[in-house]
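Example S7 (structure tokens).
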């Protein structure tokens, strides 16, 4: 059986572009769920001294056409759930069915397995604006999107139910 593979161009101002190829595990008009079995990062990521993602960790990604965020279900390298991570991004631009691109707008919302939410990388966004890599209007939209997500966390609506339904065990089926 042939696996469907998504090809994602992920721009990071000022000039970096990464290409990610991820297995498509589910697709509807509202979302595309992809799986990255081994995250290609070079260093462990921490929030408040706790590991949220390690080199080689599996991640389940949710891409929503038209939205300014995607959501990852993060795990450590052993496959233990660590939390939910929302990248604030430009809405994806599709180039055919399973090819798209987006630009990272630096802000991220982290919701740890302990239920604690944090806004990450505010200084990076401020620096990007100061350097002219992101315009003020886009930065304001990014901040508003992050605030919407944090408000959804406070209401118990983030991550959405469709994200909570997925796990590594379900992806493996």
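Recovered sequence:
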């Amino acid at each position: 059986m042939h696996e469907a593979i998504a090809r994602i161009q992920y721009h990071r101002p000022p000039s970096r572009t990464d290409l990610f190829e991820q297995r498509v595990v589910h697709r509807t008009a509202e979302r595309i769920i992809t799986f990255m079995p081994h995250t290609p990062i070079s260093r462990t990521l921490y929030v408040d001294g706790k590991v949220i993602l390690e080199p080689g960790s599996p991640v389940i990604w949710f891409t929503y056409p038209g939205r300014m965020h995607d959501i990852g279900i993060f795990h450590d390298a052993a496959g233990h759930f660590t939390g939910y991570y929302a990248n604030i991004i430009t809405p994806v631009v599709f180039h055919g069915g399973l090819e798209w691109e987006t630009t990272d707008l630096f802000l991220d919302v982290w919701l740890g397995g302990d239920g604690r939410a944090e806004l990450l990388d505010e200084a990076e966004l401020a620096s990007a604006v100061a350097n002219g890599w992101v315009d003020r209007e886009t930065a304001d939209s990014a901040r508003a999107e992050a605030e919407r997500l944090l408000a959804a966390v406070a209401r118990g609506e983030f991550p959405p139910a469709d994200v909570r339904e997925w796990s590594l065990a379900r992806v493996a089926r």
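Notes on this example. DSSP finds four helices and eleven strands in the chain.
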